[in-house]
Amino acid sequence: MGRYEQQRSFLKSNFLEFKHIKTDKIKGLPKPPIVKPYAASSIIIDLPEVSEDIINRENIYDCIKERRSTRFYSEDSLSLEELSYLLWATQGITATNKAGLTLRTVPCSGATHTFETYLFIMRVEGIPQGIYRYLPVEHKLLFMYELDELDNKIDAITLDQPFVPNFAKKAAVVFAWSTIPYRSEWKYDISAHKKILIDIGHVSQNLYLASESIDAGACAIGIYDQKLIDEVLGLDGDEEFVLFLGAVGKKRK
């Protein structure tokens, strides 16, 4: 039991301890930005407006019932409309309230939304292979850079997968969600980190169900080389680091 005690304790509610803490929000410290800034010279790609016309399977019951972790993909590309829909489904902003909090397609503790969405794009129609970042406020893509042998880099990042080795590099797109913990720590202090892990589960499940609705398959990836992927994306590994991955591609017939 001793070796699990600390991690089991992390899973429990610490509200009684938290309510006696004076958070940075209570102290009046500035609220962290809701998204990372980017240079005015960045290459920005417009995404198609999201429409329900992209959906092939409208019955949510079927999407939930038939959802599976898909590790076998065809060589078909995703359309840009499909990628736009998947990004909207996982981090899209649907409204902003009077307090300036963004309301999105996924629930989040206190609307803190600590995540940034990075994309390893292999096969999306009209989009060169490379590394991208999603800009949820504008609903656009920011091109970061090309990466030689992108498939092999994905393979190195995702290590030895236990069920189907090397499957991630065969996906059309690999989503990489980072967290900027202070967005939640500012408001929730020591309670932030459990909330962040709960919140990323909501994001991942939306990716699964949205993928099912367009006859694509998704697979969450929790086994990856933390240091390597943070380095590839230019993250410092402390104030921002990758938390979870998700591979998506058209299902192999």
Descriptive overview:
- With 253 residues, the protein is α+β, with helices and mostly antiparallel strands.
- The chain has a single domain, classed as NADH Oxidase, CATH 3.40.109.
- The protein has helices at 5-11, 15-18, 60-66, 80-91, 150-157, 182-188, 192-213, 226-233, and strands at 43-46, 93-96, 102-104, 115-121, 130-135, 140-145, 173-179, 216-221, 241-250.
- The strands form 2 sheets. The chain has a 7-stranded antiparallel beta sheet, sandwiched between helices. Strands 2-3 form a two-stranded antiparallel ribbon.
- The longest helix is centred in the C-terminal third of the chain and has 22 residues, at 192-213.
- The mean pLDDT is 96.
Brief rundown of the structure:
With 253 residues, the chain is α+β, with helices and mostly antiparallel strands. The chain is built from 8 helices and 9 strands. The protein has one domain: NADH Oxidase (3-Layer(aba) Sandwich), CATH 3.40.109.
Superfamily at the CATH H level? NADH Oxidase
Uncertain runs are none
Quaternary status of these chains?
single chain
Distance between the termini: 46 Å
Integer average pLDDT: 96
How many domains, in number, for the residues? 1
Shape: globular
* Beta strand count: 9
Order of H and E elements: HHEHHEEEEEHEHHEHE
Walk across the major sheet and give the strand order: 1-6-5-4-7-9-8
- Number of H/I helices: 8
Outline the biggest β-sheet: 7 strands, antiparallel
CATH class: Alpha Beta
Strand-pairing-aware structural class: alpha+beta
Query: What radius of gyration results from the CA coordinates?
Result: 19 Å
Give the CATH architecture: 3-Layer(aba) Sandwich
In CATH, the topology is named NADH Oxidase
